[in-house]
Amino acid sequence: MIGVDEAKIRLAEEGYCVLEALLDPADADRLGELSRPFMKSPEPNFFHLGGALNDVPELAQLCIHPTILEIAEHELGDGFILANNVDVTRTEPGAPAQPLHADVPLSWMPQPWPAFPTALQVFWMLTDYTPDNGATVVVPFSHHARRPPTRSSYPGEVPVLGCKGSVFLMRPGVWHGRGQNTGRDRHRGTVNIFYLPRYIHRPKDTWPLVKHNVYEQLPERLRQMTVSA
Question: Which of 97, 113, 90 is nearest to 191 (CA)?
């Protein structure tokens, strides 16, 4: 089990890390069940809920977890914002793999990409991440290339594994993709929270805004980081 200091080192060097046991497994189950009725299926056997704070405001606790905020400030500086208003995903058996890619905002920028972090992706594990249930695949150290991947697979790619309640953190330049769920009866559930530094513009048409009535009920720390409709 690694701590915050080791997490900061691994993010800089390897581009990703896993922190264990930040969320009680019972809370992970509860948040998954609260989200499920609102989810849509944009792809076969894959379900998604964007702008999830609007439907499941209970997710606010994850957005302002002290450990995550400490790492986000280290990576992005003060004044960082919550960019995507939280996504929840459910990868069911039979869901296909996703091509390797790197994330925004780097994909909006000319190459070579900046060497400093321009975002922080945080994935809360609502279920175990296993080799056969669609766990995210990453190519460690790939963010140092400062460009997108040019091949469909790489010898060094590995699945990100962890227990329910753990958190997977990643810099946006890491080459990664959703793994194929080859299991028969086990889905993979995730809450994705995306943080941007204050110097990166948040496009209004990229992520849903937080509805005003929801915004008014959020904790003060989260309101400081969130864009309201």
Answer: 90
Q: In this structure, are residues 90 and 134 in contact, taking their beta carbons and an 8 Å threshold?
A: no
Q: Tokens standing for 166?
A: 């753990």
Say which residues have a Cβ less than 8 Å from residue 202's Cβ, sequence separation at least 6: 81, 83, 196, 227
Say which residues have a Cβ less than 8 Å from residue 65's Cβ, sequence separation at least 6.
Answer: 22
pTM above 0.90, yes or no: yes
- The continuous run of DSSP H or E covering 62 comes out as helix 60-63
> Is-contact 165 24, C-beta < 8 A?
yes
Model confidence over 41-92: pLDDT tens digits? 999 999 999 999 999 999 999 999 999 999 999 999 999 999 999 999 999 9
Q: Which of 216, 159, 170 is nearest to 193 (CA)?
A: 170
Q: Residue 124: phi, psi to the nearest 5?
A: -85, 130
CA distance 170 to 75: 11
Q: What are phi and psi of 72, to 5 degrees?
A: -60, -40
